[in-house]
Design goal:
The chain is mostly beta strands.
């Protein structure tokens, strides 16, 4: 079996970890180098897993070129969890490909979409 574990690089792994926890993700692993602080975290929600890595030295995170798309059982109640924490881009009751979606920017501008079957 092959498993895909996407990652995004962020300026502050601890801040991003806390932000994702505030919208319902659980941290299932971290790594911290002595004297350097938290440099990696693995986040999950249900069976979906992704990783946060520290931004490389002398680079800028380019959030415009990547994001995360989660297929979920339901997205009910997510809008309320995101209020005041994320800039909601779009809420679609049913896409052309038959999904209900809420798309937003996370704390560092990465585009995130939560998707489910329509009600």
């Amino acid at each position: 079996m092959t498993t895909l574990l996407p990652f995004i690089r962020v300026p502050d792994v601890g801040f991003a970890k806390s932000w994702y926890e505030s919208i319902g993700f659980t941290c299932i692993g971290t790594h911290e180098e002595p004297g350097c602080g938290l440099d990696w975290a693995m986040m999950c929600r249900d069976d979906a897993v992704f990783m946060l890595y520290a931004q490389l030295e002398n680079t800028v995170t380019n959030a415009n070129n990547c994001g995360l798309y989660f297929k979920m059982d339901t997205i009910e109640g997510l809008r309320e969890k995101l209020e005041g924490k994320a800039r909601i881009i779009e809420i679609v009751d049913e896409t052309a490909y038959g999904r209900k979606e809420i798309t937003f920017h996370d704390c560092y501008g990465f585009q995130v979409t939560f998707s489910s079957e329509p009600d």
